[in-house]
Amino acid sequence: MNESNLNAPLLEVEGLVQRFAVASDVLGRPSQWLHAVEDVSLTLYPGESLGIVGESGCGKSTLARAILHLYEPSAGRVTFMGRDVGSARSADLRALRRDMQIVLQDPFGALNPRRIVGASIADGLKGPDRRKRAEALLERVGLKAADYSRYPHEFSGGQRQRICIARALAPEPKLLIADEAVSALDVSVQAQILNLLSELRADFGLSFLFISHNLAVVRSFCDRLTVMYLGRVVETGPTEAVFSDPAHPYTRALISAVPIPDPAHPGQHTLLEGDVPSPLTPPSGCAFRTRCPHAAPICAQSVPAMTPAGDRRSAACARLDDVMRGPIWDSAEGTK
Ligand SMILES: Nc1ncnc2c1ncn2[C@@H]1O[C@H](COP(=O)(O)OP(=O)(O)OP(=O)(O)O)[C@@H](O)[C@H]1O
């Protein structure tokens, strides 16, 4: 067991549901709901990096925003540093939000184009010598103290992401939520930013919720990962265990589609066929059954519960035993 697991969780999400009203009746009452996040639970321990993966639209960003309490959840509870985020009053919530910072995909949109970058960073600092400390943060993320007085448009995309990271670090957070934080960058710049995040993680003892559709990036950065499909968690476990022996049919398909050179499984791909169903009308039972090569009548009956699938791993599949007994890479009719 990882030493950090002996500590109390930093973040606990229990049964979180986030639905959006997308249509209303003549009386203005919601008549149609979009199911963005459905019954998501996860735990993050101090110092850990938890990856959240899944295709576009599966609810990753909504989950991040719900954790920050930017939305009123439809149900469920978020506990951060032992405090219930949902019941925090505004001053408490402001304090909690200093402790959990988010870095987004678009570093240009995230910065005010009319303010010098140093001022944006200094906003997050308290006490004396704010300029000096903002300059030190710029240097810590690989920029220069003199960059303090420059404007966002004077920087490259990678440099702007460094500025966003410096700004996120200013309030000395415990948790950094990286929402597709390297996705918009060139591959070589992605690697540099990931290195920087790894260093900061060690230096500041930061915990990460690392959201990405890019499995290779998640593999390089995360201790554990949680796989989402249409708003729900379908599998969770230590990163390497999930990559080498994925349990859920969706995880298998997702991982086999990643072009990671692997002599043990040359050229084997389970193709993910068909489209993700609409979150307005999710299928009954297991949402993945409409694309799953293992689907059986039982899969339509009820949403499968998360069940143990090995050491510190669990997956939500009614046919888990059959799926896991089969070969990993070419178990499906969808195999090409
Ligand atoms: N404020 C909102 N109102 C209505 N629907 C929303 C809202 N925010 C997100 N959604 C919908 O919720 C679902 C989940 O979106 P979300 O952005 O969380 O997914 P994602 O996995 O982060 O995808 P991406 O990587 O493309 O951002 C999508 O169907 C999206 O259209």
From TrEMBL:
It is a peripheral membrane protein. GO terms for molecular function: ATP binding; ATP hydrolysis activity. Keywords: ATP-binding, Hydrolase, Nucleotide-binding, Transport. Its main location: membrane. It is an enzyme of class 3 (hydrolase). GO terms for biological process: peptide transport; transmembrane transport. It holds the Pfam family oligo_HPY. Its EC number is 3.6.3.-. Residues 11-255 form the ABC transporter domain. One of its GO terms (cellular component) is plasma membrane. It is found in: Cell inner membrane. PROSITE patterns: ABC_TRANSPORTER_1, ABC_TRANSPORTER_2. Belongs to the ABC transporter superfamily. This is Glutathione import ATP-binding protein GsiA. It comes from Thalassovita gelatinovora (Thalassobius gelatinovorus).
